[in-house]
Amino acid sequence: PTDSSILTFHTDASTPPGTSTVIITGTEMPQRKDGIEHSTQVVLIVPPPDFTIEVKPETLAVNPGDTVDCDVILESIYGFSSPCTLTLEEDSLPANTTYNFDPATVVPTDSSILTFYTDVSTPPGIRTIVITGSEMTRGNKGIEHSTQVVLIVAPPRIEVTSPNGDEHWCVDKTQEITWSSEGVPVPFVKIEYSVNGGTGWETIAESTDNDGTYAWTIPDTPSDSCLVRVSDAEDGDPWDESDHFFAIFLAGDADGNGKVDIGDPIYLINYLFQSGLPPAPFEAGDVNLDETVNIADLIYLLIYLFSVTHYYTQSPIKAGFEFIRLYWGFAFPDGSPSSSLKTQNSCGREDG
Question: What is the model's pLDDT at position 308?
Answer without folding.
Answer: 44
